[in-house]
Amino acid sequence: MQIQIQTFTVHKRFALTISRGTTAQTTNIWVRIEHDGIEGWGEAAPFSVGEKPQTTEAIARSLQAIAPLLKALNPLERQRIDRLMAETRLPSAARAALDVALHDWVGKQANLPLWQLWGLERDRIVPTSVTIGISSPEDAKQRVWDWLGKGTIAAPLQGIQALKIKLGNPDGMEADQAMLLAVKAAAPHISQISVDANGGWNVNTALKMSFWLADQGITYIEQPLLKGQEADLAKLYYQSPLPIFVDESCFTSRDIPLLVDRVHGINIKLLKSGGLSEALRMIHTAKAFGLKVMLGCYSDSSLLNTALAHLSPLADHLDLDSHLNLLDDPFVGAVFQNGRVVPNNQPGLGVRFRN
Question: CATH homologous superfamily of domain 117-353?
Fold first, then answer.
């Protein structure tokens, strides 16, 4: 099979600030594999969770290095391909791009969308949240109004049912509380509101915030503590009135057994896990341990979010909104319907170029 690698830059409608910094644009990688006249598409995007960042340049170099090794293989030879990716220590974002492209190829060969190939039901897809980054109360309120079409910027969406609020403000707990109250005041009709601290709290702040957030009707807290502080999650798990989910603390299915006694759920992202194959493995592992599953994203375009949307009938919570916040998304795939990101009936991913 032949592999082509191409970069593209996307710009956010609203710059996103979390506890680790602000992102306004990213340069992603579009991967195409071709075999027997069928082309499968995948995507990688740069991301960092506090360890060595996976940059666009590093991801591209790793894909260029493995491409000649894959030429003699068929997309159906997955064990051999997986061994090659392991032997070459391919970064998880590069693995995700190849894995998604291989799934897209298989779906197109079978002439079936992936959700149907897996036997899933699209009517089981729950609403996705849209994200409000760390900001002042006034800016947070304006951002909500913009998403809802009530502000100065026309919102691209109709039917938003869930919000995710980024907390962990460096100015402290009072700043977090003021921002959240402003968001609630701006959208009193939205009852599904979750919080993601991105490791911005210590255990004592997280515990105090959990009781306050429970009084505010928040549904769950995501990644309250930094990756590496998993031992302290046990205290939150037993004392917090709200469910605790982890993101940065859980990369693959191998991490899940170490977390089952201290979290209620995990956030799965394709770039972090290494693709749809591992994401599906994580879903089944988490559910075997009685954990809830959330599917999330980084700076993914419609290509990668559509890929994960095919697995969304298996998820309890969704945060697949990064493509909805792009000014120049080059792809079209899953559609936003009544607050849900729903894959279409086209073979494979069902992704095409935007006209």
Answer: Enolase-like C-terminal domain (3.20.20.120)
